[in-house]
Amino acid sequence: MAALVKQALADRSMTAFSYGYRDDDPNVVGGIQMAEMLGCQHVKVITTADEVPRLLADSIYHLEEPVGRDQYLMLFKMACRARGLVDTLITGNCGDYVFGSPPLAYKYMLASRVPVLRGVLEDIATDQYSGAGAKTLAGKVVLTWRACVTGRNTPRAAQVRSVTGYQRE
Length: 169
Hints:
Elements: H1 2-9, E1 15-20, H2 26-38, E2 41-46, H3 52-63, H4 70-82, H5 96-99, H6 102-113, H7 118-130, H8 137-150, E3 158-160, E4 166-168
Parallel strand pairs: 1-2
Antiparallel strand pairs: 3-4
């Protein structure tokens, strides 16, 4: 999504935000890497445990939502941090369920630390969240075995074909 926004902005500047609970949080590390890849400014939004009660109350009040959810803390704190820095804040709220929740980010970080297992770990992680399918032979073997044991496959992912549309495989 960030790459598509950057492309649409053309020559205008873009600031990327990432949210996490520590500097080494996979979401923060990935956000920094993405910002470097896109050539844009990056802002870390770190939340500590002692901030959670206040942030939860503030986010419920400001978002007028009677149910507190972890995404609201992120949205509220990120919006506060973005105030005065950007004209428009676009978030991928709940996109992590599809494209990269913390378990997925953890598997990618583990894969980068264990080069021998990198391909199969990336295949497993990607398949669990998007159904994109394995790229390595070892990944295909593991995912086929898992499908036989559990009796289910992850649905295939949608592929982005252009900025304006997509095609489902």
